[in-house]
């Protein structure tokens, strides 16, 4: 196995703006990359180019030193040693679970006994040993998804591509399947690329997150890094439910901001040498404290273990906050912003 390299990748459909532009990234062997971004940003197009269903208009795709595709070259999907798991599972309804899982081996004319053993191993990896003789119609959504995963395991792919595989499942099942994916990744050792528009899913599963917007790659980093140090407004707005404030900050201020510097900026008392900036403030960093700035609660919802609040500051800007104590809409509160991140 080898790293998967996307090199200044571009895809144009017709005459409009390119669906993917100048996208470069490297996925090291065995990593789990989540491609995250809003609907229409080009995630699926990137995945389809990697799989071999679309040809790049420009740039190239390599697995190690092997060129898979560029504007002039196009290795067919079956010669890339990749497997793709679709949202719809794409199982054959007339075949049993074992037959579905063994199908890629039959196509490759693998000897029967060997194929049987591989199917057994793959079904055990997704905990479906007991379901080998069932048909897909007699399985739950999560079980069907596991059959689709087992089917991709049997071919021992270098790269597994997943296109929003959990989108059709309910919340409870999604959590269970996230576990299955993590386990599947650990056991198979395959490089995985996972398309999603759900930031919490991307964070929970992946070893690296690549955020896309309008066909471009904005930032690629491990989940903790994207969460703690998002680059720019789009990513700041996408990850971790924060509020974004517009403030005038000293040109020399650091990106990580504490309460004294935030307080001065919110007071509007720095005038000289400032520039407009966007500052991300996470709800857990907003403390209710009478020593802070005054604000008014514009909404309050009980979420189970806490209240989720929206608080409007004197300058009209709004913050999200949490409170363990009951707080009502219309209440006046003091707020201290423990930390902020300049986007
Ligand atoms: N075969 C095609 N022909 C023309 N335009 C296309 C084609 N496939 C995708 N596009 C366009 O390319 C852009 C990116 O689409 P893509 O499906 O990659 O986005 P996405 O981020 O995966 O979105 P979603 O999450 O909704 O699936 C969109 O504007 C889409 O309309």
TrEMBL record:
Keywords: ATP-binding, Cell membrane, Ion transport, Iron, Iron transport, Membrane, Nucleotide-binding, Transport
PROSITE patterns, A to Z: ABC_TRANSPORTER_1, ABC_TRANSPORTER_2
ABC transporter domain boundaries: 4-239
InterPro entries with a match to the protein in the record: AAA+_ATPase, ABC_SmlMolc_Importer, ABC_transporter-like_ATP-bd, ABC_transporter-like_CS, ABC_transpr_FbpC, Mo/tungstate-bd_C_term_dom, P-loop_NTPase, Transp-assoc_OB_typ2
Gene3D superfamilies in UniProt: P-loop containing nucleotide triphosphate hydrolases (3.40.50.300)
GO MF term list: ATP binding
Similarity field: Belongs to the ABC transporter superfamily.
Protein name stated in the entry: Iron(III) transport system ATP-binding protein
Source organism: Pseudorhizobium tarimense
